Amino acid sequence: MAGIDENLTFYPLRIAVLTVSDTRDEQTDKSGGLLAERLTAAGHELAAKAIVTDDADAIRNQVRSWADDPDVDLVISTGGTGFSPRDVTPEAVKPLFRREMDGFSVLFHQASFGTVGFSTLQSRAFAGQVDDTFVFCLPGSTGACRDGWDLVLRHELDSRYRPCSLAGQVPRLRHLCA
Fold it and tell me: For residues 35 and 76, is the Cβ–Cβ distance under 8 A?
């Protein structure tokens, strides 16, 4: 049966949170704040947090920097995944991927459909790997971040989740969670 096996050891991940926005700052960044709060409440470590503008180079440079940082296991971004002219997160990040994780988008949209209905079609949420670093890109609303974390990521990033957890694919944990 799929779920958390409480008999197993929890191994926290070091997660960086990136907010993509032309209008948010530390005081008004509710989506990035929600993700940081949720991941630390789940026992993970907030490895870094940043806000960049809706600029492909700024987004790509920050994701690349964290993918190169051995103290960052995973990146979650929020914002820039819609269809407004300034939404360029997919165009900025996908060229960095060596692999895409198609299933994340499917599961995110299933979860999101339950809360926002057909409006989920306006999201281009996606995930993949930059080298060995997993990157998950969520829409910029707090509701979308809540759906993405609560209904998808918190389970898959928990090393105790069975039949398997993405934590076992993080290079520093492969020997522990395989």
Answer: yes
